[in-house]
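I have been asked to look over a protein record a colleague put together. This is what I was given:
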Amino acid sequence: MMLWALPGQAVHTTIKVVDAQDHTPLAFARIRIHETGQIYQSNPQGIVRLSVDNWPQTATISYIGYHDLHLTLTKERTLYEAALQPLSYTLGSVQVVGDRVKGSKTGNIAQADAFRIAAGQGQTLAGILDDLPGMRVLSTGAMIEKPIIEGMNGSRIAIIDNSAKLMGQHWGDDHAPEMSISSYAKVHVEKGAESVRYGANAIGGIIVVDTKVDPRLSGTKGSVNTAYTQNGRMFGLDAFVESTLPGVEHFRYRVGGKFYKSGDYRTAAYNVSNTGSRLLDLKAAWAWQWNDKWQWKQHLGLYDTEIGVFSGSHLGTTENLLQRFKQGRPSPEEIGPFSYAISAPRQRIIHTISNTQVGYDFDADNHFDVRLVYQQDYRREYEIRKADLSNLPTFAFKLSTLNLHADWQHRLSAIQGMMETGADFNFIRNVSDAGTKAIPIIPNYVSRTTALYSLLHGRINNKLRMEAGMRTDYQYLSAAGYNNLGQFYGGTQHYFSISGTLGGAYILSPHSTLRTNLGLAWRAPEMNELYSKGVHHGDAVYQIGDADFHTEKAIKWTAGYHLKTQTVDVHANAFVHYIHDYIYDIPRYTVDGSGQRIPEIFELISGAYPIYYYVQSNGLFAGGDLAVELTLGKHLTYEVSGEWMRARNLSLHTYFPNIPSDRYRQKVTFH
């Protein structure tokens, strides 16, 4: 652990400053010794070491948003834990469901309840977050679910796993995030445009998953969680153990894993054949702090899942497809008995990650981090094929990503804040397996991104905190492939963009806070949006892209209000999101001889598929949410909430498809 006392002083007393509710370390807390007038600051781990010559001494520890704490330091005791109690208000409109969210963010934030995470071990990431304000689920299969943040999903939101952005193949509606949530994870959602810190793919917001290991803790702990659901007869197990390494000071590790298996799901009237799934998720992490200045954190993960796709979703002729649209349900011959078996059509995804982070404390005001993250995502999709080819994937893509990130954090005493400056280099290579005897829907490609950013946040006065930042990105993209006619296609693309953020949090009274943020973000087109020309088997559609697409450019304004008293807790959030050149896919229709409007269909040997075209339009997204919780007694609370959203296509003067509907809920809780 590092010393944050004055240079040259011997260390006699150590104080660790933490949050009294969850014991999270509080960095840059202020410690004042009354007898000498000396002032110290806790380091990023909440530690301060100081020298005391005359005993006893009185210290006052203070931190923004917490009550002051007074300690009496004696000669007989050399280690103290200062547990600070939060004030009755927060610094912003933070939608809290469970533990309080830390940080100086000025956008709207929602945090998942710890009990909800532990109880939802049989659910996907999107399913666990569905109850949060502004969050919805895009579901295209039994366990194929993607989170939606205020209308944005897929490559428009970033999933941050222990400070590293999850890099998977999220370009299809049937491509769920390659992540499951452990019972010990902390998860929160930031609903502003977060491109300054996290780059492209954070145009709609971010989901932050934190499973960090604290090297200062001691002892051994662990847990075992089991899960069962009736629909699908899913059974699963989630377990971990965490301890210190014998003989090595300040070294702590955790190993854990999750397994579940599910069979066919069913509706109220029939069984949905071939919709089973299985998952194996293994994780290992450790943290080591040594030499008073160095820290090493390591995370390793293996995610292996197989998902069945309803066997009746692909139909052989146009007439059968149109008839099925009218019928609204499978034919009797496509409905079989319950089974755990998974056959074609199906998906198999293996995702591995190695996240290495090394930190160094120069002095009391400067900290440096470097992070190297390697990820590999291997996705294979199988279709019912003739000539015994069903065991060969229709397409198989291997996505390899290497990310190098470095940042420097400098404490600014004058404004009780922080300036963070960083650089990012990202290399991506995606190749298709040979020997599939099928034409890949997207070409092989290589992408290189270089970025620089800077963020500043601090306190203007006792009531106002501000945050500002800027980022520049340059992306090089090179694609090469052959279509079903044997013709070469692809090319080279260059993208340059500037992102920014400006926000503030203002304490209106001891019980209420106002928060607002304005963010500028961008997103480059994905490979499927540029070059798709073929069947996306998971979606059972024929997709056609456009190589001339421009980058999406967005500006998002968010505002939040929080009021909390002993009897009422109010969270109100609103947003307006303008996106220039918004990319989406839609079907096209023709008119038959009888004047009936029918979708365009593309017929192949494997079946008939609706044709979807990717297009660009300017869009305006706006909405908000409101939650009011009333304390009706010592043990009883009542909550009512509502969410609204509209997505206007400004180019065509219509509305965008696939936007969540309004939602209203009420809940009574007995503690």
